[in-house]
UniProtKB/TrEMBL annotation:
Gene Ontology molecular function terms on file: fatty acyl-CoA hydrolase activity
GO biological process: acyl-CoA metabolic process; fatty acid metabolic process
Domain BAAT/Acyl-CoA thioester hydrolase C-terminal: 212-268, 296-400
Active site: S237, D311, H346
Family: Belongs to the C/M/P thioester hydrolase family.
Origin organism lineage: Eukaryota, Metazoa, Chordata, Craniata, Vertebrata
Domain Acyl-CoA thioester hydrolase/bile acid-CoA amino acid N-acetyltransferase: 17-148
Pfam entry (one): Bile_Hydr_Trans
Protein's name in the database: Acyl-CoA thioesterase 19
UniProt xrefs under InterPro entries: AB_hydrolase_fold (IPR029058), Acyl-CoA_thioEstase_long-chain (IPR016662), BAAT_C (IPR014940), Thio_Ohase/aa_AcTrfase (IPR006862), Thio_Ohase/BAAT_N (IPR042490)
Amino acid sequence: MNSVPVLTVKPWRALFDEKFHVVVGNLPPTQEVTLHSLHQSEDTDYWEAFGHYVSDAQGMVTVAKDESFGGTYEGVDPMGLLVSMRPIPGSRTGLRLRIKDVQTPMLVHISVYRGHMSQGFREQAALASVITERWYMAPGVRRVDITEGGVTGTLFLPPGPGPFPGVLDMWGGGGGLVEYRAALLASHGFAVMAISYFFPDHKKNTTIGYPYFENAFRLLQDHCLVATDRIALLGISFGVTVVLSITAYSETVKPRCCVCISGLRSIVVSVQTQCFPKWLLICSVLLRLVLFCPQMGRITCPLLLVVGQDDQNNATVEAADDMKKMMERAGNSHLLTTLSYPGAGHLIEPPYSPHCKVSSFLMPESRERVLMLWGGLTKPHTVAQEDSWEKILGFLREHLCHSVKPHVQSRL
């Protein structure tokens, strides 16, 4: 009697930044099989990844140690079924997989098929299938809408009595309120406020200056469960410009440390006079002045800089060099830590997020939708996301937490 293949995924329910282990057993020795992952996004688009494997002498495939010989990823890649996800053939152009509702899990269907397949998965019967859950919010994390002081945002609070170290989380020029990184950080013990400051609706009053960010910082700082003197700023892309500007020039925003991911070359933009969405013009004019800006000399807290060396969207490598030189001249270079990753692109996100090399982007002023090139190669970009996330968590713990126990991954 033929044995029935068994597919196991452990843990099948986990935080988004936890690895899973995929194993197929009860196969004939040297059997060619395809492992396939499938996810339907909140926008109803389907995403997939797949790898081609050959079972060992015991009739097993262990993704963590066995090589994929083809598919959307190759070689030994324990998380290839997530990080190499791409829209299925025939999908809309320029898709980017982003979770909007962080209170529900990302469901991923993992299946094993006989033979090495690259298409037609829906037409074939799987040998075995498992549904996995990937969560951004750990049990007990609370989500609170923020609409005070003119600030639009969301606060995520870890379980427990607090007080918790705080993080003010700012995304880039895409606009809107992005919550998933904040929710995941809260799952690691930080009180995190994600704010919207670049409004997609260009017809509304979009003049943003220091008071907006100062109000957001004060709201986080004054919360009864937040440690008043232990708050960090975190920004990506244009958010880096905001982080550095308010840290250098605001009289009231005094973060304990800052994390900057994929920052713009034109880091001299001051939000004091910034009127969105005119930022592209301002950035291009001030680009030439970057080396003469005193801003970096005004930074007095530890600064972690994350750079993708294949960033095709911004001159982040040059920006990192500029910042280092300016801080050396100012005598505060001891505050700067730079993580630079070969082959990584612009969108360095929490680990195991699918690598996005190009996607559709709505230009803030013209409202024209274009394809934006972000850069990066899947394997090195994946390495950058995993490594930088652990170091970002370590950096935040070092500077925000008085005493920290080693991180233990949460099993949901």
